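This week, work through this protein record:
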Amino acid sequence: MKGLILSGGKGTRLRPLTFTSAKQLVPVANKPVLFFGIESIVAAGITEIGIIVGDTKDEIREAVGDGSKFGAKVTYIEQDAPRGLAHAVMIAEDFIGSDSFVMYLGDNLIAGGITSLVEEFQELGCNAQILLAEVPNPEQFGVAELAEDNTIRRLQEKPAKPKSNLALVGVYMFDRKIFEAVHRIKPSARGELEITDAIQDLIDHGAEVHPHKVRGWWKDTGKLEDMLEANRIVLEAYDIPRSPLRMGTNSHVEGRVGIAEGVELINTRVRGPAVIGAGTRLENAFVGPYSSIGPGCTLVNCEIENSIILEGSEIRDIDGRIDDSLVGRNVKIVQSESKPKAHRFMLGDRSEVGIL
């Protein structure tokens, strides 16, 4: 088998952060979301991986390289514009060749990886396997309606009135029949080649498509709330390493806290689960549970909880706790004259905010 990771798209739901950064490289527990997908595919024994890239191709290439650091060989496949998941499959046909493959959306996370799912697909010998999860907002996803015998009755992309609450998870397994389907279907009303239409076409032409209901957690990290929830989930389960740190008097580290090299704590309390990136300095600060502080950050006279702060950011002299926030790279947040008691931020890279 081969792997196909979709890492194009514009990340509109995470703007302004994604005006300057690929959404798949926003970190969860200080690791880019995309890396979790690559590692899951490699752990399943798949080492030939194609990555679909778009406008952020240079950034993706720089982060992933040739794949050798993951134990994989990576081929980049350029998509001129976001034309739908089925279009991504279409342009990957030469790379896939005669192999079956797993398609993984680069901004998705799934509990426990995909090894058992790949094994199930291979044992079943079906033409396709789709993953389904119960969601409270199915109208925002591709939706599957199942018959009583657990076969797929119908698939629809973001229906206004969903027939079920079973959403398609962003991991799919296919054999070569999917290429026949993507060439047969037409663009949807939104002008894209939908993977749901392609899978429905497989079913209509007598192919065997197996549905698998996901029992653990799964997250599509396309929105702020989902990023923060994914960060919480991963920190809860993550095997967090701790390097030696410079810890002054009146500093305390409680619970599971991942600490990279060169971290300095001065009169600071860190309460896990949390991770602190290399070279970060915390002074007169509190970092609460479910926080990921990137490398090279400076936090002085402030409190952070349940937030993701990216590399190189500086936060100083903030009254009130920063909570439920995603702050981009090299952001500067400083206190101005007035002092509100609560703050909530979603900031793009190189922003500077003065608190009024």
